[in-house]
Amino acid sequence: MTTSEVPSAQRAEPALDASERAMLDGWLDYHRQTLVEKCSGLTDDELKRTSVPTSELTLLGLLRHMAEVERWWFVTVFAGGTDEGVYGTDEDPDGDFHFGPDDTFAEALATWRTEVADARARAAGRGLDELSTGTARDGQHFNLRWVYTHMIEEYARHNGHADLLREAIDGATGA
């Protein structure tokens, strides 16, 4: 058994006729699960492997990065929570991509799952037109619909990176 195997959870295709909120929830969960599946079945060493020498991009780094992104958008920006980075620090803002030999997929997955659960809780019962506590650089507030759309875009972009990283590791493609 590899170190990154996770219980198989089938990705649910978003419903074709869902309401707007259910559609956004469905697509975000679909892309969340896609990233986990891209990491599944690899060792910690494989998950830490870069595809090109000039890049720090790794599958483990992407999972850790998305834990940071979940917290930033749903907790810090939307709900107005404190900006407590998950992995990044003032000294190393890209700490999500910097890890040591003792950092594991199991820890990163548990952290990511905690951040996703918190994000879901912060969005639950909130309307898509509700405005964030935090603001953009120009002082404008984000509505929850914008946050959802941005998160779907963020996962989709990084899932493309994950496709390339996974293919470079073991040739696996698709999904």
Topology:
Layout: H1 20-39, H2 44-47, H3 59-78, H4 105-123, E1 131-135, E2 141-143, H5 144-170
Antiparallel strand pairs: 1-2
Helix pairs in contact: 1-3, 1-5, 3-4, 3-5
Brief description of this entry?
The chain is mainly alpha-helical and 175 residues long.
CATH fold-level topology? Four Helix Bundle (Hemerythrin (Met), subunit A)
User: How many domains is the backbone divided into?
Assistant: 1
Mean of residue pLDDT values: 92
DSSP strand (E) fraction? under 5%
**How many strands appear in the DSSP assignment?**
2
The H/E string reads HHHHEEH
The class by helix and strand makeup works out as mainly alpha
CATH class: Mainly Alpha
* Share of helix, binned: 40-55%
Count of discrete alpha- or pi-helical segments spanning 4 or more residues = 5
What's the CATH superfamily, by name? Answer: dinb family like domain
Q: Please state how the strands of the largest beta sheet are arranged side by side.
A: 1-2
Q: Based on the structure given, which CATH architecture is correct?
A: Up-down Bundle
Characterize the biggest β-sheet.
2 strands, antiparallel
**How would you sum up the global shape?**
globular
State the low-pLDDT regions, or none: none
What radius of gyration results from the CA coordinates?
16 Å
Distance between the termini: 21 Å
Question: What does this 3D model show about the protein?
Answer:
By secondary structure, the chain is mainly α. It has a single domain (24-170), classed as dinb family like domain (Four Helix Bundle (Hemerythrin (Met), subunit A)). It is 51% helix and 5% strand. The protein is built from five helices and two strands; from the N terminus they run ααααββα. The longest helix has 27 residues, at 144-170. The radius of gyration is 16 Å and the shape is globular.
